Amino acid sequence: VKPMHHPHHVWVTQTKRITTWMIRIFFAATVAFSIPVDKLLSIEAFLKGSLMGIFPCIATKVLCAPFMGDAKFVIGWAMVGRAEFA
Q1: Position 84 pLDDT exceeds 70
Q2: Residues 84, 57 contacting (CB under 8 angstroms)
Q3: Which among 12-16, 28-32, 57-61, 77-81 has the top mean pLDDT?
Q4: With DSSP H G I counted as helix, E B as strand and the rest as coil, what are the percentages for the chain, rounded to 5?
C-alpha cells in the first residue's frame, strides 16, 4: 500500500509546470491591466527606466572591470549580461 502522501506528490509533479505558468499569467495580467497605457508609454517613464537601467545596473558592473585583471571588460560585460538580460 502506498503512503498517503504519494497522491499529493503525483499531483504536484504532474501539475507543477501548468500551475507555474498560470500563476505567471495571472500576476502579469493583474499588473498589466492596473497600469494605464498613457502613463506607461510616456517620455518621463522611458527616461526614468533608461536611467535606472544604464547607471545603477550596467555602469556599476562595467566600471568594476579595471579591478578584475587581464580580462577586464569581458568580465564586466559578462556580469551585465548575466544579471540584466538573463
Answers
A1: no
A2: yes
A3: 12-16
A4: 85, 0, 15
| 24: DSSP letter | H
Please tell me whether the overall predicted TM-score, pTM, comes out greater than 0.70 for this model: no
Query: Which pLDDT score, from 0 to 100, does residue 43 have?
Result: 92
DSSP letter (8 states) at residue 71? T
Question: Is residue 72 classed exposed, middle or buried when 0-12, 13-18 and 19+ CB atoms within 10 A define those classes?
Answer: middle
| pLDDT of the residue at 58 | 78
> HSE-up of 32 (CA within 13 Å, CB side)?
6
Helix count and strand count (H, E) for the chain: 5, 0
Contacts of 72 (CB under 8 A, 6+ apart): 65, 66
Q: Chain-centre distance of CA 25, in angstroms?
A: 15
